[in-house]
C-alpha cells in the first residue's frame, strides 16, 4: 500500500486483520497517531510507516518491540522511542521531571548521592552503547535488515536520485551506484536493466544465491527492492572498487604480495562455491570486473547474475547464457556446457592477467595467439619477460644479476604461472579443481 498518496489517519480497524503478517504504508500522506491497537496483531512481523506525517507516541508492544528506525523515519513529529533516536514525548518528559523532583526533595543525602551515581552509571552505559553502534554501523546494519525489502524512495534518497556522481560502474545486467543511508551506512546498489531480456531472472538468481551463501570472500546481499518496473539489490560496498579498475590504474601498482593475496581470496571463494556449499555453484562469469576489493584489499567475488546451481547427482549443465569473451572455457563457448571446470578455466585466465597485466582481449592477441599461448612461449626460462613491467620494477629485478631473494621470487612466479596452466587445460577433465589448487 506504499506510494499511493493516501491521506488521513491510519484506520484503527486494521486491528481486526488478525492474520495480517506484513503492512507497508510508507511514502504516503497519512497523518494522526499510530494506532495502539496494532500491538494486538500477534502475526504482524513487518510494519513500515516511514515518510508520512504521523505524530504522537510510538507504541511499544507487538511488532513495535523490534521495529527498525528505517520503518519509522520521515515522520519528524513521532516521539517516545529514544532507543531509535526518536525523542521522548513532552508528556513523558514532564512526568519524569516531576518524579525526579519529588525524589530530590524527600530523599536523604545518602539516597541523593546513590541516585547521582546510578544516573552517571547509566548515562555512561547509554553513551558507550551509542558510540559502539555508530562506530560499527556499517558492520551491524546488514544483519538487521537482511531479507527485508527496502523502498524505492529510500534508494532515491541514498543515491541522490541515482546521480551520475554516485555511479560506480555498469555491466551486462545492470548499473551499480554508491548509496548512503540514514546513519551514514554506505552500500552498493545494483539496479538491474529491465530492458535486458534476462533482467528479472538475474535478479531472482542473485537474490537466491547471495542470500544463502556464507563466505568472507563473497559479496553479501543486504536488502532488495522489487516491483513491476524496477529491481535492485543492496550489497556490501567495496571502497577500492573492482580488481579490473585497480589493476589497470596508472596511480596504484599492486605489489606481488597484494596480487597473490587477491588470487588466494578468489580461490577460497570459488572452492567454497564448488565444494563446500550444499549444491555446487558455477559462477559462469569470473573476471576482474567481478572481483571487488574492500578497504584492506581483501577480494570478494560478486555478480552471480548468471550463476548456475548444479544438481547433486551431476556435475555438468547446459546454458544459453554466455559469460565474457576471453574468460569463458572452450566447451562453454561452443555448446553451452558448464561445470565447475568452466570456472577453473576462468580462474586460470584471471591468474595470468593479474601477473601479466594483459587482458585476454588485448589487441596483441589475434589469430592463433592468445594470452595463454603468449605466456607459454616464455615459460619458464623467460618468465620475467611476460610479467607486468610495474611489478618487475616493484620487485627490483634487473637484467644484469638476480640475488638469492629475487631468485626465490622468480621460482614462486614460475609456480604461480604453472598453476594457471593446470587450470587452462583444453579438456575439462584434465584441469585441476579448486581444492587441488593448493597442492599444485
From TrEMBL:
GO terms for molecular function: ATP binding; protein serine/threonine kinase activity. The keyword Protein biosynthesis does not apply. The chain crosses the membrane at residues 102-127. Keywords: ATP-binding, Cell membrane, Glycoprotein, Kinase, Leucine-rich repeat, Membrane, Nucleotide-binding, Phosphoprotein, Receptor, Repeat, Serine/threonine-protein kinase, Signal, Transferase, Transmembrane, Transmembrane helix. ATP binds at residue 190. It holds the Pfam family LRR_8. Gene3D superfamilies: Phosphorylase Kinase, domain 1, Ribonuclease Inhibitor, Transferase(Phosphotransferase) domain 1. It is found in: Cell membrane. It catalyses: L-threonyl-[protein] + ATP = O-phospho-L-threonyl-[protein] + ADP + H(+); L-seryl-[protein] + ATP = O-phospho-L-seryl-[protein] + ADP + H(+). GO terms for cellular component: plasma membrane. Its EC number is 2.7.11.1. This is non-specific serine/threonine protein kinase.
Amino acid at each position: 500500500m506504499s506510494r499511493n498518496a493516501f491521506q488521513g489517519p491510519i484506520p484503527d480497524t486494521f486491528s481486526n486483520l488478525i492474520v495480517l503478517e506484513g503492512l507497508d504504508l510508507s511514502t504516503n500522506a497519512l497523518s494522526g497517531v499510530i494506532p495502539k491497537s496494532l500491538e494486538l496483531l500477534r502475526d504482524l512481523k513487518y510494519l513500515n510507516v516511514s515518510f508520512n506525517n504521523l505524530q504522537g507516541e510510538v507504541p511499544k508492544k507487538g511488532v513495535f518491540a523490534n521495529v527498525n528506525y528505517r520503518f519509522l523515519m520521515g515522520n519528524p513529529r513521532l516521539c517516545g522511542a529514544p532507543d531509535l533516536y526518536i525523542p521522548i514525548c513532552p508528556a513523558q518528559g514532564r512526568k519524569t521531571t516531576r518524579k525526579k523532583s519529588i525524589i530530590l526533595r524527600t530523599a536523604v543525602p545518602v539516597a541523593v548521592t546513590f541516585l547521582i551515581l546510578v544516573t552517571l552509571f547509566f548515562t555512561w552505559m547509554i553513551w558507550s552503547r551509542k558510540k559502539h553502534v555508530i562506530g560499527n554501523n556499517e558492520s551491524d546494519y546488514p544483519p538487521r535488515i537482511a531479507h527485508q525489502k527496502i523502498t524505492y524512495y529510500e534508494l532515491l534518497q541514498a543515491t541522490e536520485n541515482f546521480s551520475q556522481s554516485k555511479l560506480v560502474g555498469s555491466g551486462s545486467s545492470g548499473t551499480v551506484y554508491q548509496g548512503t543511508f540514514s546513519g551514514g551506512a554506505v552500500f552498493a546498489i545494483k539496479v538491474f536493466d529491465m530492458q535486458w531480456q534476462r533482467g528479472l531472472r538475474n535478479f531472482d538468481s542473485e537474490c537466491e544465491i547471495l542470500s544463502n551463501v556464507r563466505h568472507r570472500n563473497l559479496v553479501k546481499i543486504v536488502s532488495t527492492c522489487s516491483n513491476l518496473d524496477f529491481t535492485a539489490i543492496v550489497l556490501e560496498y567495496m571502497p577500492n572498487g573492482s580488481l579490473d579498475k585497480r589493476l589497470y590504474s596508472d596511480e596504484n601498482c599492486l605489489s606481488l604480495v597484494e596480487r597473490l593475496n587477491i588470487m588466494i581470496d578468489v580461490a577460497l571463494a570459488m572452492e567454497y562455491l564448488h565444494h563446500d556449499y550444499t549444491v555446487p555453484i558455477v559462477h559462469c562469469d569470473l573476471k576482474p570486473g567481478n572481483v571487488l576489493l574492500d578497504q584492506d584489499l581483501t577480494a570478494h567475488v560478486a555478480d552471480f547474475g548468471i550463476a548456475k546451481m548444479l544438481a547433486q547427482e551431476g556435475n555438468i549443465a547446459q546454458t544459453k547464457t554466455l559469460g565474457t569473451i576471453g574468460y569463458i572455457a572452450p566447451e562453454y563457448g561452443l555448446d553451452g556446457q558448464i561445470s565447475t571446470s568452466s570456472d577453473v578455466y576462468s580462474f586460470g585466465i584471471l591468474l595470468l592477467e593479474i601477473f601479466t597485466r594483459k587482458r585476454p582481449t588485448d589487441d596483441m592477441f589475434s589469430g592463433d595467439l592468445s594470452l595463454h599461448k603468449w605466456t607459454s612461449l616464455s615459460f619458464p626460462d623467460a618468465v620475467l619477460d611476460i610479467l607486468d613491467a610495474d611489478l618487475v620494477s616493484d620487485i627490483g629485478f634487473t637484467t644484469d644479476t638476480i640475488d638469492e631473494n629475487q631468485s626465490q621470487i622468480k621460482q614462486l612466479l614460475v609456480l604461480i604461472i604453472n598453476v594457471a596452466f593446470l587450470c587452462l587445460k583444453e579438456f575439462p577433465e584434465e584441469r585441476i579443481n579448486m581444492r587441488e589448487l593448493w597442492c599444485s
